[in-house]
Amino acid sequence: MSSTELPETLAAASLAPRVGAVRVAEGEELRSVSLPGLTLTVRSRPGTGPGLEPALYVHGLGGSSQNWSTLMPLLADRLEGEALDLPGFGDSPPPDDGNYSVTGHARAVIRLLDSAGRGPVHLIGNSLGGAVSTRVAAVRPDLVRTLTLISPALPEIRVQRSAWPTALVALPGVASLFARLSRDWTAEDRTRGVMALCYGDPGRVSPEGFEAAVQEMERRLQLPYFWDAMTRSARGIVDAYTLGGQHGLWRQAERVLAPTLLVYGQRDQLVSYRMARRAAAAFRDSRLLTLPDAGHVAMMEYPATVAQAVRELLDESAGRHRGAGRAAPGRDTGDRETTDRENRS
């Protein structure tokens, strides 16, 4: 990292101030997990029955574990759900080493799972969290039972124009410039801008949901490391896009063994819908859910539809496990099956 970029980083990381209460929905629990080199906030939604399999939800760039508060209760009868705040996001302070790369975030996920002994989990990621989850599933297949990727940030050769501003944040000095230019913007203005970018139809957001998002935006803007975490994580995505060879994300996607559900919105302004077919071909055991009216955060826009697709994945995975004892040793059960569904609601 350049020593000329955002010099307040080290001070911010060492202070890691708490600037306000984080919203906790009814039925959720929040806890802090101390690990070597980082501290993570984990939001849990206990399952409604005994013996449920564990799930871990991983949010995207600029998001937090709150992004999963609508989906988790819809799967609580099937999964013991936990959603983490990646380092520097939500209520998690920056990592000690300042590493916001995709690999750095993946390492945080792996450390959390190893420390808790929860694996293998049903791993569910959105955007940046999708790229992180892909890397985790590729390098630690023992930790992942199934993989669900919602608009995963996988490399695109031709990034759509609506995603350019987000990519530009990765450039040195751009975040500081934007922070100065937008100094007079209210939290409501910023929230509306984010929702216009991330939602296929921002009108689907309830007044209560909008107010909660505004409050979270106000809280984040008080964090001295907010822009640093955004900048370095955006740079991490760009770096991952340009990384080739066996460490490239597309190459790692081909190595994923877990049954994989891919969810893409046709109105996504950040991850192009045209990448859906390539992703379905890259993951060896994939199924594809396409939502014509969804944007970048389908789990918040159409949570019931996404939950149903996850249930189908769980059912299929459970059926395979039950039949594993009858399968010959070493038998490959990873036939590719790609299914398109459309939400017409």
From TrEMBL:
<keyword id="KW-0378">Hydrolase</keyword>
<dbReference type="GO" id="GO:0016787">
    <property type="term" value="F:hydrolase activity"/>
</dbReference>
<feature type="region of interest" description="Disordered">
    <location>
        <begin position="317"/>
        <end position="345"/>
    </location>
</feature>
<dbReference type="InterPro" id="IPR000073">
    <property type="entry name" value="AB_hydrolase_1"/>
</dbReference>
<dbReference type="InterPro" id="IPR050266">
    <property type="entry name" value="AB_hydrolase_sf"/>
</dbReference>
<dbReference type="InterPro" id="IPR029058">
    <property type="entry name" value="AB_hydrolase_fold"/>
</dbReference>
<feature type="compositionally biased region" description="Basic and acidic residues">
    <location>
        <begin position="332"/>
        <end position="345"/>
    </location>
</feature>
<feature type="domain" description="AB hydrolase-1">
    <location>
        <begin position="56"/>
        <end position="301"/>
    </location>
</feature>
<dbReference type="InterPro" id="IPR000639">
    <property type="entry name" value="Epox_hydrolase-like"/>
</dbReference>
<dbReference type="Pfam" id="PF00561">
    <property type="entry name" value="Abhydrolase_1"/>
</dbReference>
<protein>
    <submittedName>
        <fullName>Alpha/beta hydrolase</fullName>
    </submittedName>
</protein>
